[in-house]
């Protein structure tokens, strides 16, 4: 009995093979990708409008274009309703926030979202009023969840966080102590 089951199983295996075995043409792959990006675009719309997301940064870039690779767990921009957090950090030093950098937590003021349906991107602008200063945040989010946010304050310097956008519940960031 066991031999017959094995033979039937092996013979029927090609019948249950995944439909992905058939090759898609280049045009079909492009259409599938476009459909996925359009779906992601509308999902991002609800995520941004809910104001419950985190930009987890993989790179930080200064106004001169110098870019460094960073840990996304301690380098992030978090928005939760009317509250926001900007944090930089490093595992190699202590810093004033306990994670090797600075943490600015405060209240979100101005909030503007502009959507570009043609390029499937969002441009978000908001102000964050914190205990260590006021910051303007200009964020661009693409339909593949890539996000880049440039922060400017009262000084001439700028810092750009580059990474992925995640829902607040799916993020695993670690917030340090508020910088005083």
Task: Report the sheet with the most strands, covering strand number, pairing sense and barrel closure.
Answer: 8 strands, antiparallel, barrel
The global form is globular
Q: Based on helices, strands and strand pairing, what is the structural class?
A: alpha+beta
Helix content: 10-25%
The domain tally reads 1
Q: What are the segments in which pLDDT stays under 50 over at least 5 consecutive residues? A: 2-17
The separation of the N and C termini measures 76 Å
* Number of helical elements: 2
Q: How big a fraction of the residues is strand?
A: 35-45%
Fill in the CATH topology: Lipocalin
User: What is the CATH C-level name?
Assistant: Mainly Beta
Number-wise, the strands total: 9
pLDDT averaged residue by residue:
85
Which descriptors apply to this entry?
single chain; 180 residues; alpha+beta; Lipocalin; eight-stranded antiparallel barrel; globular; disordered N terminus
Question: Mind explaining what this structure looks like?
Answer:
It is a single chain. With 180 residues, the protein is an alpha+beta fold. It has one domain: Lipocalin (Beta Barrel), CATH 2.40.128.410. Helix content is 20%, strand content 43%. The chain contains two helices and nine strands. It has an eight-stranded antiparallel barrel with strand order 1-3-4-5-6-7-8-9. The longest helix is centred in the N-terminal third of the chain and has 25 residues, at 26-50. It is globular, with a radius of gyration of 22 Å. The model is unreliable at 2-17 (pLDDT under 50).
């Amino acid at each position: 009995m066991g031999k017959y089951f094995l033979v039937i199983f092996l013979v029927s295996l090609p019948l249950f093979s995944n439909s992905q075995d058939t090759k898609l043409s280049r045009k079909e792959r492009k259409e599938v990708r476009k459909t996925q990006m359009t779906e992601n675009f509308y999902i991002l719309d609800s995520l941004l409008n809910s104001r419950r997301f985190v930009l987890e940064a993989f790179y930080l870039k200064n106004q001169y274009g110098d870019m460094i690779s960073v840990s996304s767990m301690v380098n992030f921009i978090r928005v939760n309703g009317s509250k926001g957090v900007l944090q930089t950090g490093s595992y190699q030093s202590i810093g004033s926030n306990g994670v090797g950098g600075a943490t600015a937590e405060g209240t979100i003021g101005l909030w503007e979202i502009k959507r570009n349906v043609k390029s499937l991107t969002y441009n978000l602008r908001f102000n964050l009023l914190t205990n260590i200063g006021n910051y303007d945040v200009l964020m661009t989010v693409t339909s593949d969840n890539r996000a880049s946010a440039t922060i400017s304050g009262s000084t001439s310097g700028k810092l750009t966080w580059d990474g992925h956008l995640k829902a607040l519940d799916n993020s695993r960031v670690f917030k340090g102590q508020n910088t005083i």
